[in-house]
């Protein structure tokens, strides 16, 4: 039985966020602080609407841009890490990993509800924010949302979220 499937994808030069981070891995290793120029691509699937759109490119692009702009030029810190503890440090946020700690001005950080600021988790976070943005605009939340986050050229992670 033949069938058709529609999707739209946005990936624009400005869907980029340049952010600081460090991740933990293998249980006992914590990277030194560093940054990436992350690039984001978003795809959604669904039925065509009365405009014959799956989703308006412009709305999808603008919602994605608003989310990534919040991350741009910020230090990304995980609030759910079992290894990195965040605490108040006067006007700063202190991140502690074993005997190492870093202190950052609070307004130069984004505290993300993730366990590790890997590209996978950043993609998941952006996908969640996109669902909220769609609902917040009174738009139908797309059946399938894919978010790709490219940490550096040739290294990317993607999440596919499906409503079913
Ligand atoms: N599946 C994943 N693997 C790794 C992630 C990730 O998010 N998901 N992240 C990292 C680190 O962030 C690490 O910094 C990446 O290291 P590297 O590739 O060396 O990054 P560079 O930007 O320095 O790239 P170069 O090609 O070395 O210049 C590790 N793994």
Automatic annotation (TrEMBL):
InterPro entries tied to this protein: 6-PTP_synth/QueD, 6-PTP_synth/QueD_sf
Keyword Amino-acid biosynthesis: no
Superkingdom per UniProt: Bacteria
Pathway the protein contributes to: Purine metabolism; 7-cyano-7-deazaguanine biosynthesis
Gene3D superfamilies, per the entry: 6-pyruvoyl tetrahydropterin synthase/QueD (3.30.479.10)
Cofactor(s) of this protein: Zn(2+)
Protein's name according to its UniProt entry: 6-carboxy-5,6,7,8-tetrahydropterin synthase
Family of this protein: Belongs to the PTPS family. QueD subfamily.
Class of the enzyme per the UniProt entry, highest EC level: lyase
Documented EC number(s): 4.1.2.50
Keyword Transmembrane helix: no
Catalytic reactions on record: 7,8-dihydroneopterin 3'-triphosphate + H2O = 6-carboxy-5,6,7,8-tetrahydropterin + triphosphate + acetaldehyde + 2 H(+)
MF terms in GO: 6-carboxytetrahydropterin synthase activity; metal ion binding
Pfam families named among the record's database cross-references: PTPS
Keywords, in A-Z order: Lyase, Metal-binding, Zinc
């Amino acid at each position: 039985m033949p069938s058709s499937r529609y999707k739209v994808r946005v990936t624009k030069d400005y869907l980029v966020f340049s952010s600081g981070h460090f991740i933990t891995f293998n249980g006992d290793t914590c990277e030194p602080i560093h940054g990436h120029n992350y690039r984001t691509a978003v795809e959604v699937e669904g039925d065509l609407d009365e405009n014959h759109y799956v989703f308006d490119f412009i709305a999808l692009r603008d919602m994605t841009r608003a989310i990534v702009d919040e991350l741009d030029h910020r230090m990304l810190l995980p609030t759910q890490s079992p290894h990195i503890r965040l605490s108040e440090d006067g006007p700063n946020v202190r991140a502690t990993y074993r005997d190492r700690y870093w202190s950052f001005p609070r307004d130069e950080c984004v505290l993300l509800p993730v366990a590790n600021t890997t590209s996978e988790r950043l993609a998941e976070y952006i996908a969640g924010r996109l669902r909220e943005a769609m609902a917040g605009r009174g738009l139908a939340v797309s059946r399938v949302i894919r978010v790709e986050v490219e940490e550096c050229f040739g290294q990317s992670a993607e999440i596919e979220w499906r409503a079913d």
